[in-house]
Amino acid sequence: MNFRKNPSIWVPLLYFTQGLPYVLVVSVSVILYKRLGLSNAEIGLYTSWLYLPWVLKPLWSPIVDMWYQKKSWYVSMQMIIALCFIIAGLLIPTQWFLVSTLACFWMVAFASATNDIATDGYYLMALSQRQQSLFVGIRSLFYRFAMLTGQGGLVVLAGYFEMKYGDNAKAWSLTMLISGILMAVLALKNWWFTPAIEEDKSSSTTSFLAVFKSFFEKKQILYALAFILTYRLGESQLVKMASPFMLDDKTAGGLALSTQTIGSIYGTLGVIALSTGGILGGIVISKHGLKRWMFPMLISLNLPNLCYLLLAYFQIDNLVWISTTVILEQFGYGFGFAAFLIYLMFLAEGPTKTAHYAIATGVMALGMMLPGMLSGYIQEVLGYELFFVWVLLCAIPAFLIARKLKYPETYGRKSA
User: Fold this and answer.
1) Shortest CA distance to 360 belongs to which of 237, 211, 236?
2) Which part of the chain is CATH 1.20.1250.20?
3) Among candidates 122, 83, 88, which has minimal Cα distance to 102?
4) According to DSSP H, which parts of 50-69 are helical?
């Protein structure tokens, strides 16, 4: 039937499915482990290691490209993700929950990174260039809907179960089981709605190695790598400690919010602000170019973090102020990330831009992983107030390196 070939149906499904495991592993796991009693140092270290598959995914992207169809890859990976979430849910109430859930989340992360490769490759092959441009906003929108579902709906559901049963382990066990069932349903839908397409398997590992080498021969590559690693230096630590800060008791310097409240704020107002910032960022860059907006967007990414410092210093537990902080931070991230994304695309320009973009995003994931691993230790040593001061100071390297970078003033701008 024709509806199985209609990208208006399968593009939203594919990218919602792509976003859900990522947000569960990277963001929701932080709240899960906090509610199950782990320290901030442990949370920062363990959950940041989960970025590693996204760091390394360029290394096995040729395998996905050469063997089997992209559809076979992403459906298989999505079913593996579903199974791992179900197993994690069954093991959360046990005494060895930490090791077992981390193992499951590692499997989810590797499968999710592989799913990203296959999904993006399928998107590029199945659609014409005109269709790719037409649906780029839709794929981004449904990826954000996945964030809304993970950070909002599923976290609120976990908070509801916590209140209903008075048992955090049981609450998160049920939440992970539901997440697994949801992923299985999405995988089956993707299998049904996406058409099988012919693929060219003529690429080789040797050619990929040459492409990999050519990436590190680009002009200003050392400055570029340093910029990619430091652009999100403050955010990489804030994203790991923001939820623990809101969940911790006031005696520990936190705001003592409930799981449901955090899910409601981040999953609704936060995602709306993030989406708005991202859309607006893309619009202004398309009008004025990357060069003009790089520094304003760096400011927008980092300045809202000052609000977290004020919350910690004055111990503000007013939901209006907390919600405003999240809105400003998420809008600033969406707006500021637009410049970073365009810069990665600019860096990847050339005959092998798909592979170069995969490498660039792998370096970006490394820049999130390493600082995130230390974030909990830094917070425990400094306390929340000084930790947020530290997060603000972490913006300085990116500003200094950005002054050294060279990029066309018109890149990202519509041609006249």
Assistant:
1) 211
2) 1-194, 211-416
3) 88
4) 52-66
Task: Tell me how far apart the terminal alpha carbons of the chain are, to the nearest angstrom.
Answer: 42
Show the tokens assigned to 178: 């539901």
CA atoms 295, 313, 32, 190: torsion sign: negative
pLDDT at 407: 65
CB atoms within 10 A of CB 41: 17
The CATH superfamily holding the domain 211-416 is MFS general substrate transporter like domains (1.20.1250.20)
DSSP 8-state symbol, 414: P
Asked if 335 contacts 278 with a C-beta cutoff of 8 angstroms, the reply is yes
1-194 topology per CATH: Growth Hormone; Chain: A; (1.20.1250)
Query: Which DSSP letter does residue 3 get?
Result: G
Q: Which two tokens stand for residue 399?
A: 């500003």
Mean pLDDT, contiguous 10-residue spans, the chain (416 residues): 67 91 92 93 92 85 74 92 97 94 96 88 71 63 82 91 94 97 95 75 59 83 94 92 92 91 84 81 78 88 94 90 92 85 77 73 89 93 96 95 76 49
